[in-house]
């Protein structure tokens, strides 16, 4: 559970870092770009805190967590409704992340 929480924090940092860089580029504001870069560096540290999990497995699970967090931000903050294709594709990604996470116990 600690790993999933860290991945949620990492995903939030990545989304915020990307948004800050985008804001900086749109406004030609270097302070936003610098803030975005620092946030993305923080994401890199947080996502790699648990070094006991193989990197490929960690990133596979992270992609599923990232998808869920980004879709939650899209719906809750940006008030965007996901398409059916996004929902089905997202479910497949989450299913894949679940298999990656639980696979060592199942196989």
Q: Separation of termini?
A: 21 Å
Provide the structure class.
mainly alpha
Q: pLDDT average, as an integer? A: 92
Low-confidence stretches: none
Question: How helix-rich are the residues, as a percent range?
Answer: over 70%
Total number of helical segments? 4
Radius of gyration: 15 Å
Secondary-structure element series = HHHH
Descriptive account of the structure:
This protein is an all-alpha fold and 107 residues long. The chain has one domain (2-106). The protein has helices at 2-27, 30-47, 55-76, 84-106. Helix 1 packs across helix 3 (55-76) and helix 3 packs antiparallel against helix 4 (84-106). The model has no long low-confidence stretch (mean pLDDT 92).
Short description:
This protein has 107 residues and is mostly helical.
Topology:
Blueprint: H1 2-27, H2 30-47, H3 55-76, H4 84-106
Helix pairs in contact: 1-2, 1-3, 3-4
Keywords, separated by commas or semicolons:
107 residues, mainly alpha, 4 helices
């Amino acid at each position: 559970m600690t790993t999933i929480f860290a991945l949620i924090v990492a995903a939030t940092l990545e989304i915020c870092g990307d948004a800050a860089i985008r804001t900086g580029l749109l406004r030609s504001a270097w302070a936003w770009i610098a803030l975005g870069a620092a946030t993305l560096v923080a994401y890199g540290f947080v996502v790699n805190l648990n070094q006991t999990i193989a990197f490929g497995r960690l990133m596979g699970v992270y992609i599923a967590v990232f998808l869920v967090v980004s879709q939650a931000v899209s719906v809750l903050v940006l008030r965007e409704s996901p398409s059916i294709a996004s929902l089905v594709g997202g479910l497949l990604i989450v299913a894949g992340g679940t298999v990656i996470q639980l696979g060592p116990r199942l196989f």
